[in-house]
Amino acid sequence: MRIEYLDEVDSTNTYIRRYLEEGEDVIVCARRQTGGRGTKGRSFCSKEGGVYLSALTFYPDLPVSRAFRIMTHSAVAVCCTAKAFGADAQIKWPNDVFAAGRKLSGTLIENILSGDKVRCSVVGIGFNVNNDVSALGGIAVSLSELVGTVKTDDVRDELISNLLREDDFAEYLSFVRFLGKEITVVEGEKSFPAIARAISEDGRLIADTAAGRRTLSAAEISVRF
Ligand code: BTN
Q1: Within this chain, do residues 188 and 123 fall inside the same structural domain, yes or no?
Q2: Minimal-distance CA residue to ligand 1 atom 9
Q3: Ligand 1 pocket residue status of 125, Cβ below 6 Å
Q4: Residue 222: pLDDT above 90?
Q5: How many independent structural domains does the chain possess?
Q6: Mean pLDDT for all residues in the chain
Q7: Last residue of one domain, picked from the residues 150, 174, 198
Q8: Which of 68, 79, 86, 200 has the most Cβ atoms closer than 10 angstroms to its Cβ?
Q9: How far does the centroid of ligand 1 lie from the alpha carbon of residue 203, in Å?
Q10: Confidence of residue 20 (pLDDT cuts 50, 70, 90)
Q11: What is the pTM of this model?
Q12: Are residues 36 and 146 both part of a single domain?
């Protein structure tokens, strides 16, 4: 596996696209990003001290219907990394990772499709380790706040080794702690309470609402825990 280490880049997700035509898996890490990108077109604050990396992975035969596998794999890798350093992380469906009620890590996944197959994916992970997240108004937490002194490079290396190992859906579910609990579903302008019941292997959340059982897709709604 080729791994590239950069001091500074605009966005590892953007940078890694130069390898799309090479057909080989690669990981790019940066100490800081000047134009870090988050989900929904947001920017992602990427000051020195965090782990910022993107993994480009090619798939010989991955149907689009099984693309949720890419999300579960990265979320498990982040949770196992946090656990290795003594933090109790959990997955906020579909793939954010929280600890102590605050966001420890975010992931931006960009899939490149070929027909009904995923040709390759860029999985970009921003993991708060020693970076100052206080400007984010208490919604984020860093690993060092949770467990004390920890070296950013050690966390990066642990994360890479977890990304390179196999896992399964059961492991993903083991880090999901909100099933059976009340959640708030936000759908456009409306929000309503529901009880989270299950997550299907294709990534949908099954929840009981006042209007009956609903199957929710992360592309259409967001959920507050
Ligand atoms: C989010 O929570 O909105 C997703 C944040 C994803 C950030 C990571 S940092 C490494 C990679 N490069 C980027 O520009 N974004 C992702």
Answers
A1: no
A2: 126
A3: yes
A4: no
A5: 2
A6: 95
A7: 174
A8: 79
A9: 20
A10: very high
A11: 0.95
A12: yes
Same domain, 111 and 18: yes
In terms of C-beta density within 10 A (0-12 exposed, 13-18 middle, 19 or more buried), how is residue 207 classed? buried
pLDDT tens digit string along 179-208? 999 999 998 899 999 999 999 999 999 999
Please report which confidence band the pLDDT of residue 136 belongs to, taking 50, 70 and 90 as the band edges: confident
Q: How far is the CA of 211 from the centre of ligand 1 (A)?
A: 36
Cα gap 163→106, rounded to integer Å: 15
pLDDT at 161: 98
Rounded to the nearest angstrom, the distance between the alpha carbon of 36 and the centre of ligand 1 is 6
194: CATH: 2.30.30.100
Domain hosting 206: range is: 182-224
Strand order, beta sheet including 205-209: 212-216, 205-209, 190-199, 182-187, 222-224
Ligand 1 close to Cβ of residue 50 (< 6 A) = no
Nearest Cα neighbor of 38 from 26, 50, 20 is 50
Tokens of 134: 């206080």
Helix, strand, coil tally for the chain in percent (to 5):
25, 40, 35
Identify the CATH number of the domain in which residue 74 sits.
3.30.930.10
In terms of Cα–Cα distance, which of 193, 218, 186 is closest to 205? 218
Are residue 85 and residue 188 in the same domain, yes or no?
A: no
* Residues 218, 162 share a domain: no
Can you list the positions of beta strands (E) in the chain?
A: 2-9, 26-33, 51-58, 89-92, 96-99, 102-114, 117-127, 182-187, 190-199, 205-209, 212-216, 222-224
Share of the chain above pLDDT 90, in %: 91
